[in-house]
Amino acid sequence: MTDEYYMLQALKEGRKAFEIGEVPIGALVVMDGKIIARGHNHVEKLNDSSAHAEMIALTSAFHFLGSKYLPDATMYVTVEPCLMCAGALFWSKIGRIVYGADDEKNGYRKYVVPLPPIKEAGVGPWPFHPKTELLSGVLKEESALLMKEFFKLKR
Q1: How far apart are CA 13 and CA 76, in angstroms?
Q2: 93 backbone φψ class: left, alpha, beta (φ>0; ψ -120 to 50)
Q3: Which of 57, 77, 85, 148 could be a cystine partner for 39, CB 3.0 to 4.6 Å?
Q4: Active-site residue set
């Protein structure tokens, strides 16, 4: 399976959020080619500002595996993770993150000040675990369109 295939599955989760009036972000966790967890936003439904798609998918994956770490897993999420979700992804030690659309307003990059890296200490603007790989822009247009459609209806 390809990154595009899994991102299409994450977009299905985002559409579920859209249908219940939530910001349409979907996420899933994949390990060994198998989807082990899914999530979409439940912020409004649960009245919980931390109920983001990534948080729900991570919690589900931890429970499924009986582990608090995911070094062999990939998180697919339709929109760039926020700073809170980046922190949770850091602590999960997830091996790889793939996201679709950038989020200039609320994405982690807005809050990560680029610092010159200190090579010896590994200090720099990277909010994820040092071994985590990141790929952005997978089905970027489809992910951005879902968000635009949602907010167009809200205005």
Answers
A1: 11
A2: left
A3: 57
A4: 54
Phi, psi (5° rounding) for residue 2? Answer: -105, 165
- The rounded distance, in Å, linking the Cα atoms of 62 and 149 is 32
DSSP state of 110: G
Three-state DSSP at 22 gives coil
In terms of Cα–Cα distance, which of 128, 129, 92 is closest to 108?
128
- How are beta strands 34-40 and 26-31 bridged, if at all? antiparallel
- Determine whether 124 is exposed, middle or buried from the number of CB atoms within 10 Å of its CB (0-12, 13-18, 19+): middle
Residues 65-78: pLDDT tens digits? Answer: 999 999 999 999 99
Q: At residue 25, what are phi and psi to the nearest 5 degrees?
A: -115, 135
- Residue 23 near residue 43 (C-beta atoms within 8 A): yes
